[in-house]
Specification:
mainly alpha
Length: about 70
Amino acid sequence: MEKDKTFGKEQRVKQKAEGNKNKGGGISLRIQLMIGFAVPILFLVGVGIISYRSASSGMIQTVQHKVRLDSL
């Protein structure tokens, strides 16, 4: 019975040690969260810029067309 307890304890220690080895080499959680929030925001900014330019050029064309019709 005593041997079983020791064997279980050794397995837990090994599993913890292996878990710690896998932890060290990756990107930190803070960086992952920052990237996770920044990427969608950057996409929204890009869509906003494209939409603004499209609407702006459409409005300019409409105004120019109205001015031409008024001057006739």
